[in-house]
Amino acid sequence: VRAQSLGDFAALNVRLTAGGVFGARSFQIKQGDLTIGNELKASEINVSLDNGLLTVAGTIDASGERVGTIRLAAKRGLTLTGTAVLDAHGTVLRVDSYGKIIDSPNRAIVELSSGDGRLTLAQGARIDLRHGTNTPIGTSAGQNDGRARGTLDLNAPRIGSTGKTTDADAATYGDIDIDVSGMPNIQGARTINVNAMQSYDDAPTAPAPAASGRPYQVIDQAWLDSKHTASTTFINAALARGSLTAGKLAGLNNATYRDAFHLRPGIEVVS
């Protein structure tokens, strides 16, 4: 569904559920904020707000026999409240003909992107990425080996010395607009990636237009190297910034999640 706005998101999804639409649901909403309760249920769920704030206060259910996929994105910020549940777990273990576990079909995926706004995971928010939950744990063929295989990606914007994405030093200052200071409940994640995103639209214009007559930008190795240098400066500053790793990210940078947690620079190229 693509729409400028959606009058009653909950009522629409209640009707889809009543009609048995559980394969995939995708919503792109151009304007306005949205709060999601308990109305979304499908094995693959995509919700994006082009110019709004997204809040999850209930359960988004992508669970089933197979693991699910949940992707949420909002231009002005994304919040999981303390009552939010993102459930992508699968009950049936996917194995080959020898009973060996196949990684890919057992990998639940949750991706959260907050655009130019803050990404918040409140204490108590739950994300379930487990697989094969109905299969006994063990070492024999066809049994669940107990290893985590899910992927959680958290994409939040870099901010500068005054706390804004528009700051001149946002790309290198070493801070992110994110709040995971309280501990969420994350199950089944092999990797928890916090990607500090920076958007670039400054690639140089080619001296001659394309065959169509339209100008275009040149993204060459020198341009990419300059962004890599900025990302290196950013990550070094971020790792040294106690207010980030021990403050904003304290809910992930701890003994419970440390083996899965990764803080990384990311870039978005706009051309």
TrEMBL record:
UniProt feature, compositional bias: Polar residues: 132-143
UniProt region (Disordered), positions on chain: 130-150
Protein name (Swiss-Prot/TrEMBL): Filamentous haemagglutinin FhaB/tRNA nuclease CdiA-like TPS domain-containing protein
